[in-house]
Amino acid sequence: MTSPAPNFYFPAPRVQKFCSQCGALIIQRIPPDDNRVRDVCDNCGAVHYQNPRNVVGVLPVWQDKILLCRRAIEPRYDKWTLPAGFMELGETTAQGAMRETQEEAGAQIELGPLYTVIDVPHAEQVHFFYLAKVLSDELYPGPESLEAAFFDIEDIPWADLSFRTVVTTLEHYLADAKTGVFPVHHYDIPLPDAR
Amino acid sequence: MTSPAPNFYFPAPRVQKFCSQCGALIIQRIPPDDNRVRDVCDNCGAVHYQNPRNVVGVLPVWQDKILLCRRAIEPRYDKWTLPAGFMELGETTAQGAMRETQEEAGAQIELGPLYTVIDVPHAEQVHFFYLAKVLSDELYPGPESLEAAFFDIEDIPWADLSFRTVVTTLEHYLADAKTGVFPVHHYDIPLPDAR
User: What is the ipTM of this complex?
Assistant: First the structure.
């Protein structure tokens, strides 16, 4: 307990070696009444399911400008992104989107409607982006952002955006802005090599 | 390896005692560069994040009748439900919804658009229901269903439905059927005691 703290890390996604309930070695097999291989524990009987994660964020608009953050973390370090991050336990997608906006941009926003719902199966994720109105041009980017800034539409750094869900959400917004109607868009992002 | 198989179980949600990477005891603390308590391992440095799960299903319609399944599993054993279940790794919400329909009802369907997206924060879940057209009245319910059956609108067993997301999805459908327009509905289900 007095040894120096280790370097913290996020375990290689989806790899489990020991049972989180009893500490015994895990094996991979199909449990009873199931139809796919799971991480199971033959010592205590625990079945360790794993499921996709949700990423929640906003498309924040301030007087016809778009708020973007430049990432201070991997993946996509130094790329520009819409404020977004993993949904946490106990919150709604809307609450998570507002929290991420606060953490990454420190922006005051008024949350609008859900705008894009995007399946990203190769990343084992679903992404949600809300429209949002920025209420002040004061920004206080947090440690996950190198900076936060407003961009005119014609100045969006398309070649330096972080993720395809960010690119496509912005593309939908620019298209819908011509009509002023912003319905929910739901679509999949295919595997990168399948595009 | 030759001992009798234990009774398999799904560990009490969200409780972890041992590190899945090295088997050491887990402690709860705020890791560096984070802002909330996580399950962390001071032996190997693993941070074990936990996130909400997605439930994916369909609202299957056959000649003005609704397909429901009577649950053969807890929770809500014996209650009627729309076919739905936990989204699995590597699939889209649409693929998961089709898989669950096959597993629980054995129904041939043509998947329609995403219809309801429902935040259920107290259950740490987001539910997705798609509209679907049933292509044949032949049903082959699987082991998670006691039976599967078609219901006329006036015969829907409202008092014996499984979950509030099922109730509200059906309510939206009946209201929208009057206009023939079925937009995406996004809303939250509040805590039961807050209703």
Answer: 0.91
Q: Is the pLDDT of residue A5 over 70?
A: no
**Scanning the structure block, which residue is given the tokens 């998570």?**
A96
Round to whole Å and give the CA distance between A49 and B110. 28
Cβ neighbours of A86 in B, within 8 Å: 49, 51
Residues of CATH 2.20.70.10 domain(s) within chain A? 14-50
Look at residue A69 in the predicted model and tell me its pLDDT: 98
* CATH 3.90.45.10 is held by the domain A14-50: no
Q: What angle do CA A43, B29, B16 make, to 5 degrees?
A: 15
Q: Does B117 contact chain A (CB < 8 Å)?
A: yes
The torsion region of residue A154 among left (phi > 0), alpha (psi -120 to 50) and beta comes to alpha
Q: Which CATH number does A53-188 carry? A: 3.90.79.10
A171: closest CA among A129, A108, A112? Answer: A129
Confidence (pLDDT) at A194: 47
Please list every residue in chain A whose beta carbon sits closer than 8 Å to the beta carbon of residue B32.
5, 8
**Cβ separation of A46 and B11 shorter than 8 Å?**
yes
Residues of A in contact with B18 (CB under 8 A): 18-23
List, for residues A42-64, the tens digit of each pLDDT value: 999 999 999 999 999 999 999 99
Is there a contact between A20 and B21 if contact means CB atoms under 8 Å apart?
no
Tell me which of A124-128, A179-183, B33-37, B43-47 is least confident: B33-37
- Could you tell me which residues come within 8 angstroms of residue B188 by beta carbon, excluding any fewer than 6 positions away? A92, A94, B118, B119, B120, B121
Which chain B residues contact residue A15 at CB under 8 A?
21
Tell whether A171 is within 8 A of chain B (Cβ): no
Listed in order, the ranges of chain A carrying CATH 3.90.79.10 are: 53-188
A13 pLDDT more than 80 = no
Asked if B7 is an interface residue toward chain A (Cβ–Cβ < 8 A), one would say yes
The model carries a pTM of 0.92
Q: How confident is the model at residue B141 (pLDDT cuts 50, 70, 90)?
A: very high
